[in-house]
Structures are given as structure tokens and as C-alpha cells.
Design a protein that fits this description.
3 domains, single chain, TIM Barrel, alpha/beta, eight-stranded parallel β-barrel, Chitobiase, domain 2, globular, Jelly Rolls, seven-stranded antiparallel sheet
Length: about 600
Amino acid sequence: MNTFLTTLIILLSTILIPTPKQVTVLGEHTSRINGVKEVVDTTLQLPEEGYILETSGRKAVLKARSRQGLIYARATLAQLAGLEPSEMMNDDAFKKVTVPCVNIQDWPSFPIRGFMHDTGRNFREVETLKKELDLFAFYKINVFHWHLTDNPAWRIECRAYPQLNDPQYQREGRDEGRFYTYDQIREVITYARERGIMVIPEIDMPGHSQYFNKTFGFGMATPQGMEVLEACLKEFMQEIPAEDCPYIHIGSDEVKVADPKGFMTFCEDIVKAGGRTPIAWFPGLPSAEGTISQIWTEKASKVIGTELQGEYLDSYMGYLNLSCPLLNTANFYLHQLCAVNEYNGKALGGTLCLWNDVRVVDKSKTFPHNGMPEGLLSFAESSWIGGPQRSWTDYIEFEKKLIHHRDVHLKEWPMRWAANGHIPWQITVSDSNENTIIEETGIYGGCVDLNKFCKDNGVTPGKERIEAYLTTNIYVDKDTVITAWIGFDSPARSNRKSDGIGEQGKWEFSARAFVGETEIFPAKPWNEPGKYRYHHNTWHREPNELPYTDEQFFWTREPAQIPLKAGNNTIKLYCPRVFDANVWIAAFVPITTDSDGSISEAHGIRYE
């Protein structure tokens, strides 16, 4: 194979997310297209949502068995052309763009690849949701799971019981009085449909409903509450027809009621009578045959085929608000969706979830604080391509795609991420008496999950103090200074359990970082030293009403200065586990921050 074709194939392997099933290079040239031709052909020998994209001459030809497939083909073409998500549906954007001459045949491994956004706790404007839908379509996410109600508020217009929209019954500071009118809901559904995305609304019942109890003085699972719910559900289904909304998620998790089966049967029967298929969380209240289960337990692989016999969705690995983005981005990619290679009649796919329990004031911070879109891109890849379990080597290769999309397609999106999978560590864990209990080499990743590392080595961290020591060697040709994110904690955007911000001049957990014998300190004095230290869950408590700031997350604060001498430099991290932490990590991620504020990996260094 000649150099041009080799280079082009390598290029294609680093620019398309998700990775197509089949790519054929058609020649040693590129094509400057001046239009797009779309053809629906039901005779194509492809799966139902499959498509063919061919670029040659002056035209791109998109063929598919359905309009859905054409939208996927358009997304692939938009990525080849270097467009941004907001340009994908604009025909003019495809005029006079240069693309490789290729034939691509592709189809998804799972029929549902969704994204769930919790607007019950923190409201999102319709125009913001539309921008998000553009992003979903660009990466072939085909379901928007719209969580519309939660403890703070009911976000759906309600004519039968307008007091549900009354701010006096909603949680103070949580966008009181904000809800979506039926016209706005229809507007979002229409916008999504045009981009090949189905909206699945979630009305959480009977849990997550503090606003309901406050409004009426009784709970959802009481006879009076069920009467209210029946009127609300029927009104919603009358306003939003089944063809626009064939599924309704009824919640059912994290609650105990006197008659769980009776309540679920009541909800399921109403939804089914409206011509819809109900979806419920698992674990949750017992659902009937025909209700789709959405798994959020970490024991997903153990319940599939045992406790769960019907259709299901996998969300147990897909919570953006837990852990830190650098870990999530790897974990979502490595996770084998539904524990199978592809759709098998029951494994429908999965949904990536974003739960912001903590109050959000500046909504522009939601995605950078939770690592979206980088988490979305990893999930889009794994949920589309399916297949067997992927390896860490595969992930390091995938990071090249993330770099490309961060720098080319996602300039409008704050992606606080840099490639880090190649960084090797030697890790030692000791008890409080400095006795070594684990010692391993060849552990990779700029952010290391120390809790998981311990469990993988037969040690389950408890309340006792243990300490971790991590070392790696960086080689540079000449004296230089790089910047790096350094961190040892990642507060969940749900329960706030964390060590908070370090004391002035110190890292969280009283951790320490060194280059050789030179100690590395935070880049600048903390604005709120020692604050937000909660060694317990804070759900439904006052701390959850305190918004997060950039300073509380190592990936959104200013990176530290790292002076390197010519030759080998030993990076050493020390991190004690000072309480029973949900997240105990050590992160060292070299980056450079350009004059325009963009992020790229530090170049000119290698690891020895």
C-alpha cells in the first residue's frame, strides 16, 4: 500500500466517532464536494438503521434504509468535513468542503444510545437543550431521556393541578416557577426528531417527589396522590401523542411504599392505556412484564437473566456526576454495554446520565464540572460499536480521536480533558504504620482510582487510614517548565462527600506532590481554603444548596507549574486516605494552556 493511502487510512482511524463498521478508501485524492444527495432505499442489504456514505467527484451520496440512517450518514460526513455539531443539519455547510474519497458502510450495535439530563433539580432552557441535541446527533446518540420531575420541582405544565407549577411549593433557589409548557415540550420533541433523536420523558413516581408532598399534603402512593397522578399522566399523554412519545419513564427507584406492586401496576396500566411502553429504574419497585428495566446497580451483570428477564437498558457505568471526568472517559469506553457484543432481543443499549443533585447557579459550568462532552464521546463510541471488552491499549488509541474532536469539532464546548492514558506509575500502598500492603508497577493513566486499585489487589479500603505513593519518570531534552493538573479528590456532583478544598498552600487530603526533591504547590492561593469538607453524604441537606466552583475540581482550576531539568525527572505523589472516601484518586495530567485558553497535551516529554 502506498504512503498516501496508508496516511489516509490512519487519518480516518483518528477522526470518526463512533468508529464505522467498514471503511474503504476509493483513491489517492480528496473530493471537494458541492452538495449532498440523500436516498432512502429499503432494499439495501444492511441492518434497519444502517447507511452507506460515498464521496467522490463533486458529490456525497448518502443511502440508507430509513431516514434515521441518513441522519447517521450526515453526521459521519459532517465529521469528515470538519464541521461543528450546530452545522450538521445545514445543507449549505456541506458546500465546497474537502473530504477523503471513501465508501463507508455502518450501523449501530444497539438500538438505544441515550443521554439523560436531570432538569427536575436544575432547570435547563429550551435553547440550551437544542444545542445539546445538536451535539447528541453529531455523535449518533438517538435518545434524549428527559428527567422532568425531581424533589425540587415538577417541570411540566399542569392544567389539572396548576399548583404543581407554583414556586411556593418548590425548593428555594432551585429555579422556582420554571417549567416547560406543552408547546415547549413539543418544540423540543420536534427539534430532536429532525435530528434522529427520540425523546423519552421521565416523570419520577412515587420517589423523588418532595415538591408533591409539600404541594398537596399527601404522597403520590396514597389514594389521593394516585388520583392526582392519573389526571396529570392523562393530561400529558393527551397533549403529547404516542407517535411523538412512544415511551414514558415512570421512575420508581429509591422509595418504599405500602403497596409497591399495586402502585406500579397503577402507573403501568395508565401508561399502557395511553399507547406507550413504560420504563422503570432497576432496582426499584417491582415492575410488570413488558416494562423496560433501566439498570443503575453496579451488579448489572449478575441480575441480567436472573432477576431481569425482559428488555433492559444499561446505565450502571454511565453516571457523569460521579468520580472524575478523566476516569469516566476511560471507564465509559472500556465498559461493555449490557455485557453482550450487540443487541440480542433484550439488551436494548444504554443511557449516559447526568444527575446534578447539587444546586447549579451558573448553568454554563454544568458540563465542564461533570466532564461532558468527553464522557459522551466515549459512551457514543462504545454503545455504537459494541463488540467484546476493549483493552487499555485500545483506549490509548481512542484518546487520539478525543484530541481531534476537542480541537476541531468542539470549540464551542468546554472540554477540560487531555490525553493521559500513556502515563505509567509505580504504586505503593501502606498502612498507618508504614507497612507496605500493596506494591505494583505498570499501572497506567494520569488519573488513578486508588480505591479500585486497592480492591483489585485484595484490599478493601475502610475507615482506617492508609497511604498511597505514586512515582513516574519524565524525560525531557532540555530544562523546561510544563503545566499539569494535580488532584487527589473528586467531589461527586450529587452528595458532596469529599475532603473539600485544601488548607492554604496545600492540596486536598493533605496530599503532596514533588519533582525530584522539589515540592509542587497549588498554582495560586485558594479563594476558599479548607471549605466544603464533608466526610458524609449531603443529600437533602443544606450543603447541597451550595453551588460548586471551579476551584473545587482539579480539572477546572489553574494547573500547577512543573519545573523539569534536562534528562530524567521523578514525579512523586503522596496521598493519604484520611476518611472513608467514595473517591480517592491521584492525578497528574501534563497539559499546555494556549493563549486562547484552549488545552493540549504537553509535548516534548516522554516517560521512562
